[in-house]
Amino acid sequence: MTTAADEGAGGAQTVRRALALLRLVACGQERGVRLVDLERMSGLNRPTVHRLLKTLIQEGAVEQDAATRRYLIGPEVSLLGLARTRRFPLLTLAEPYLAELADQVGDTVFLSIRHGHDSICIGRCTGHHPIQVLSIEVGVRRPLGVGVSGVALLANLDPALSRVLVEDNAARLGVLGERVDDILARVEQARERGLAHAPAGLMPGTSAVALPILTPAGEALGAVTVTAMAERLAPQRFGMVTARMRETAAAIAARHAQLAQASAKRVTA
Q1: pLDDT given at position 85
Q2: Taking each helix axis from N to C terminus, what angle separates 89-105 and 235-268, rounded to the nearest 10 degrees?
Q3: In what residue span(s) does the HTH iclR-type domain sit (predicted)?
Q4: In angstroms, how far is the first alpha carbon of the chain from the final one?
Q5: Sheet holding 196-198: strands in order across?
Q6: Spatial separation of the C-alpha atoms in residues 268 and 29, rounded to whole Å
Q7: Rounded Cα–Cα distance for residues 152 and 223 (Å)
Q8: Considering only CA atoms, which of 192, 211, 202 is closest in space to residue 250?
Q9: Which residues contact 119 (CB under 8 A, 6 or more apart)?
Q10: Residues 6+ apart with CB under 8 A from 69
């Protein structure tokens, strides 16, 4: 006999699975995600994935491209997000500093945060150089370790935790052609250097570098990334660019601490 507790547990599991699928679908951005990849990344069997997707489509949370048969985030999720237009206070306070950095180095600057097992790009500012490397869009969600921002965020965590997060993402990383050991090696290198550097970026002929924005306690609020044509992150410019990035990260962290302190004083007043 099924009890109320059993039904409650089953309902909670269904909700968790549906949200996990939504996160995986979100990784596809405008390209969408194939059903077979959703199965591999989620670890769920095809009937379960298909049933959840069917319900999510009915609710407008997911849609399927008629031509490619790929699944994409639906309009309902976007509309729900409008209810919290101030949901990224870090972006609000960081934007002027990111714009200044983009002007100083001339290349594209990104702001990313960690959310669970993922890194998410929440801001982007372009510089004045004629060729801007727009490697990812705002809103892109990737498994931690895919891209320099995720590597920089992992490198700032306790090594045991960063290993667990990467290993948990093994199926998703496999779909993207990445190996757990390779990601962990990049994280270790970034931990030693204090930054993550990809001499060969996501796009041919490009490069990228990222470093964390650290609170006074050493926790990462997010990561600042600069992407550019490879020659613009060659040794003769690399030191200048990373120095400006560190100044920007420190300024954002100081402003964040200042606002947090002011907020705490208002609460206790």
Answers
A1: 52
A2: 150
A3: 12-75
A4: 56
A5: 141-143, 118-125, 108-115, 220-229, 206-214, 196-198
A6: 43
A7: 7
A8: 211
A9: 112, 113, 141, 142, 143, 144, 146, 147, 149, 150, 153, 223
A10: 34, 35
Q: What angle do CA 96, 99, 254 make, to 5 degrees?
A: 45
Count Cβ atoms below 10 Å from residue 74 Cβ, excluding itself.
Answer: 18
DSSP 8-52: HHHHHHHHHHHHHHHHHHHTTTTT-B-HHHHHHHH---HHHHHHH
Pairing of strands 71-73, 206-214: unpaired
Domains of the chain: 8-81 (1.10.10.10), 89-268 (3.30.450.40)
Instruction: Give the pLDDT mean for 176-186.
Output: 95
CA distance 260 to 269: 14
Check pLDDT > 70 for residue 2. no
Contacts 24+ apart (CB under 8 A), 7-11: none
Instruction: Report the distance separating Cα 58 and Cα 37, nearest Å.
Output: 21
> Would you list the DSSP string of 125-154?
E--SSSS----S-TT-EEETTSSHHHHHHH
Look at residues 7, 17, 66 and name the one whose alpha carbon lies nearest to residue 45.
17
Q: Is the pLDDT of residue 164 over 90?
A: yes
Pair of tokens at residue 82: 């409008």
